[in-house]
Description:
The complex is a heterodimer of chains A (112) and B (112). Chain A is mainly β. Helices cover 0% and strands 46% of the residues of chain A. Chain A contains no helices and nine strands. In chain A, the strands form two sheets. Chain A has a five-stranded mixed sheet with strand order 1-9-8-3-4, with no helix packed on it. Chain A starts with 8 loop residues before the first strand and ends with a strand. By secondary structure, chain B is mainly β. Chain B is globular and about 35 Å long. Chain B is built from no helices and eleven strands. In chain B, the strands form two sheets. In chain B, strands 2, 4, 5, 6, 9, 10 and 11 form a seven-stranded mixed sheet that branches. The chains are: A mainly beta (112), B mainly beta (112). The interface between A and B is medium-sized, with 24 and 28 residues.
Amino acid sequence: DAKTTQPPSMDCAEGRAANLPCNHSTISGNEYVYWYRQIHSQGPQYIIHGLKNNETNEMASLIITEDRKSSTLILPHATLRDTAVYYCIVHVQSGDFNKFYFGSGTKLNVKP
Amino acid sequence: NAGVTQTPKFQVLKTGQSMTLQCAQDMNHEYMSWYRQDPGMGLRLIHYSVGAGITDQGEVPNGYNVSRSTTEDFPLRLLSAAPSQTSVYFCASSYLSGNEQFFGPGTRLTVL
Lengths: 112, 112
């Protein structure tokens, strides 16, 4: 699976949109982009995933560039409870589970 | 549903001791996996299973054994604990390889 590059940390004001970038320049055509987050020391929590088209659910939106080499996770109205480490992962959905890499992620700090 | 449960929550071992970390899920998921997370780092895959009786190695399998005799349970065995195995261990399950993974609350292990 392709590896991802994320900034180590970002700040966001409470109530504003948080835009978390991820680079995956070596992504293959059948690899999905997944986002998880980990609040404090809890187990990671699934947020969203997508292949080509932009996706939206009750938690966030996922914007994937046309060439699929990068993506952005958008939290539309960040709250203090969104402070967490956010992981961007690329993975073949039916492929070798062995290659589901979490990496180091982005620490999002939401400030009052 | 209880989701994914892990026991114990905390454990202290002496070097050379063996123990089993328990993981159970009640969602009838085929895929289960074990990760470890060292301080300030992302999760690394230890072992995974794609169904009862089928297991495979992840990124960091040395020093750990797994078995999957039922769909519900996926125990992780430390054969001879070493200080390098001090970490937080997370168990996860999903319906398929690329589906949302549900994580347990973690087991915090210290090896002296």
